[in-house]
């Protein structure tokens, strides 16, 4: 088995190969929050690369809760733009799935001074986030329907699937984690209650899109925080996901408060030698579940991909940032013509390291969205400043 072989998902859809472009926030939208020409250009280029599956960056449910000031929002009045995006993104017999997300407490003060969450636990990150208020029961029910509605919009626009974002500290993960979910009702406390929000979203989404449409879930292996969502809890959730008809599970980990593990310099050397950051956990999943598995993070060589696929450690290979280091990454990687670079974008100030990396790659996205080649010469300090400036300026523009 190798990366070029097709893969049939439980819903019956077939990926033409096992390479997936994992989600990265594009930050392209203007104040209208619609997809635009940058999205069409970028995803048309990626579709042409031969990659079997593309997953979009965060597509949000509410204007008042954006992960970034440049997010796209799922809105039925944007159908024409969503159709144009889907057409470009699936133009080479490939799949493209919309990642549906709600940021919850991970909504910056530039966007909302009173965000919502499972409970009123504030996110501590450079003072950029306000204390949230707990969602009321009827609001939770409404959000479940909004997730399902966004999936239906994606299907009607021509996308081939959706990915429900339940990782990285966003709202669903806030319900899953004991750190951020202190509720005493049916949405909190025991794990069976903390998982209810996710499970009800999946059920409502499947009802909305029918049996032949792909539904993926992105889930933390753990939050990497003491007292947070643990590996044991994640394995319990995964066992239930298989019964809910999930077509592809992507394993990830961490939150905004603990994103350092995403920086290559902070990953254990034993993990780097194996390439995939979450492969140890993936092996545990494979022993207990038949759910199709996508692993993203650290994978760099074609030989490793083929070996991991042959050994049955994963079913789909997820890669993200390598797509931003080359203008034609997908086609060259599939042809065995390159092993992606390893870049370390460092300011020397710990609190800004993840901002520097995010800003650097966001600059590359901007170039590719304009049809220009990538430029790897941006400094760490400029990259960090770019991200903060982008969020502040664009948030102000959105309010004018």
Secondary-structure blueprint of this entry?
Blueprint: E1 7-8, E2 14-15, E3 19-21, H1 37-48, E4 53-60, E5 72-73, H2 79-89, E6 95-101, E7 116-117, E8 133-134, H3 137-157, E9 161-166, H4 171-176, H5 191-194, H6 196-209, E10 214-220, H7 231-243, E11 248-252, H8 269-274, H9 279-288, E12 293-296, H10 302-310, E13 316-319, H11 329-334, H12 353-369, H13 380-399
What distinguishing features does this structure have?
400 residues, globular, TIM Barrel, two-stranded antiparallel ribbon, single chain
Task: Describe it.
The chain has helices at residues 37-48, 79-89, 137-157, 171-176, 191-194, 196-209, 231-243, 269-274, 279-288, 302-310, 329-334, 353-369, 380-399, and strands spanning 7-8, 14-15, 19-21, 53-60, 72-73, 95-101, 116-117, 133-134, 161-166, 214-220, 248-252, 293-296, 316-319. The protein has 13 helices and 13 strands. It has a single domain (7-342), classed as TIM Barrel, CATH 3.20.20.70. Mean pLDDT is 91; it is low at 263-273. The longest helix has 21 residues, at 137-157. The strands form three sheets. Strands 3-4-6-9-10-11-12-13 form an eight-stranded parallel barrel, surrounded by five helices. Helix 1 links the parallel strand 3 and strand 4. It is α/β, with parallel strands linked by helices and 400 residues long. Helix 1 packs across helix 12 (353-369), helix 3 (137-157) runs parallel beside helix 6 and helix 12 packs across helix 13. The N and C termini lie far apart (54 Å).
